[in-house]
Amino acid sequence: MSQLFFKARDCSSELCTIVTPDNSDLEYVSLARRTFLLVGDVLEMSTEGNELAIDILGGKMDVRLDRNGKVTEYNAIGERENPFAGKPTNVYVPRGCKLRITAKSTGADIVLAWCPARRDTEPALITPADVVTKVVGKDNWQRNVETAIGPDIDADRLLVGETFNPPGNWSSAPPHKHDVDNPGKEARLEEVYFYMTDKPQGFAVQRLYSGADSPTQGDDLFLVRSGDTVAMPYGYHPIAAGPGYRVMYVWVLAGAKREYGKWSVDPAHEWLLDT
Prior knowledge:
- This protein is mainly beta and 275 residues long.
- The protein has one domain (5-274): Jelly Rolls (Sandwich).
- The chain is built from no helices and 23 strands.
- The protein has strands at residues 5-6, 16-19, 30-35, 42-46, 50-58, 61-67, 70-77, 89-93, 98-103, 109-116, 124-126, 132-136, 143-149, 159-165, 170-171, 176-177, 190-197, 204-209, 219-224, 229-232, 239-241, 247-254, 264-265.
- Strand 6 (61-67) and strand 7 (70-77) form a beta hairpin.
């Protein structure tokens, strides 16, 4: 089995490519991070055959897209200082674009996620006002799910958002999975979580385990800290925030079909839905 867990790295001097299909069992999703130390720092890249999402963790930046001479610019975007200071700003970037990101504040921080695209789409800016917020669960498994690039954005495969856990609370609960195609009930979508905590010593625990029909069999437990990443090509994937620490994670989904919400709950824990 390829790597599932990726420890935090210093991404202040260059783009850190964290997870790709080359170093994991993922087929579609890649994820990277860049932290800009100085105002005016620049990141340039091309999406080539991929569609790409920029999730602004904190700070402000200019984003310039050039697709065959057609330029789109989003200037001074980003409305929070850190991931726990408000809703995210996202930019959806189609395939075939040259991309230039310029930091407009010290410490501006981004996560980039991409996957192969089969068709041409249009760029989109998703501001905090556009993000769809949903309170999910109850008791100590209640959390906020912030969907940025959801079904209302014309993307080919990508779905991107953030989930916020209060201290000690669980999410992805009851445990669910989306690793087989079962029309109308479950769609096969791989997923990546990129974690942040509100204090540097914060932590969370994530389990990744198989269903009887999962394409891969396994049962893994990860201690995650700020900047860590978990790749989930299969299985149920509940997580719990450590006591006293708020935890958020950027989630990225992609697959052959783009069907958000088509997942199966672990039958052993489905009773929680009736409480």
